[in-house]
Specification:
Number of helices: 0
CATH superfamily: Hexapeptide repeat proteins
CATH architecture: 3 Solenoid
Helix content: under 10%
Number of domains: 1
Largest sheet: 12 strands, mixed
CATH topology: UDP N-Acetylglucosamine Acyltransferase, domain 1
Length: 250
């Protein structure tokens, strides 16, 4: 079995490491972790107990900066942290500066950019992308191929369906004026967004609100209201039996 493990790395009891694993300096891995084949864990990364990371995944990667990127800070970011019980699928990239809560699942092919926090028991689906400077709450579901743009905030118990697109630039990359208005989206506690919906920059989805599949949200969505269409318009209140307060969850 070929591995490259730094002498300063700390690996807990009962861990299983696959073939061609790379573990860099000062990595801390808790007890009973399972690290798959060809996984790369970058310098300083901290893994809790009972973490599973599948083949080909990269944890703690420092970001690349294009000459044209609006993000030009070259400071090295702090290490990534994954709490107890996290499960990370194959071919996932989790960047430095991420703080991933307990029992989070990040499915195959997903990407979680730098400076992102994810609350406990959240699911990030296959090929989903969470861009930089986002906060994702606890017990959320971000389904397959959804895209959470930079500077967004998703509250607890939110549901983001497959193929949802969020945006943060009304100027579509033109003129310096855009830098003064760059803003992601906010989905408040219990907000739900149906498949293929598009949320325009800076929009707020209210608590327990619902955006119907295929809608284009151009205005803020009130709490506990269903909106539909392009542009999205209020349809009716969310039925009482669908409200978070009536689910018996904690």
């Amino acid at each position: 079995m070929v591995q490259a493990i730094a002498t300063t790395a700390q690996i807990g009891e009962g861990c299983e490491l696959g073939h061609f694993v790379v573990i860099e300096d000062n990595v801390q891995i808790g007890k009973r972790c399972r690290i798959g084949h060809q996984v790369v864990i970058h310098r300083g990364t901290i893994l809790g107990d009972d973490v599973r990371i599948d083949a080909g995944t990269v944890i703690g990667k420092q970001p690349l900066r294009s000459k044209r990127s609006i993000f030009q800070d070259e400071k090295e970011l702090p290490p990534a942290r994954l709490a107890d019980g996290c499960m990370v699928g194959a071919l996932v990239v989790i960047y430095a500066g991420c703080d991933i809560g307990a029992a989070v699942l990040v499915a195959d092919g997903a990407a979680v950019r730098e400076n992102v926090s994810v609350g406990e028991f959240t699911i990030i689906g296959r090929n989903a992308t969470v861009e930089n400077f986002c906060r994702i709450g606890k017990k959320c579901k971000l389904e397959t191929n959804c895209y959470i743009t930079a500077y967004s905030e998703v509250g607890d118990y939110c549901f983001i369906a497959p193929g949802v697109h969020t945006t943060n630039d009304n100027y579509l990359g033109r003129t310096k004026e855009r830098f003064n208005h760059f803003k992601g989206v906010t989905v408040k506690k219990g907000g739900r967004i149906g498949g293929g919906a598009v949320i325009l920059p800076g929009r707020v989805i209210g608590e327990d609100a619902v955006v119907a599949a295929g809608s284009v949200v151009t205005k803020d969505v009130p709490d506990r209201v269903i909106v539909v269409g392009s542009p999205a318009r209020p349809l009716r209140p969310v039925p009482p039996e669908q409200l978070l307060e009536n689910q018996g969850w904690d």
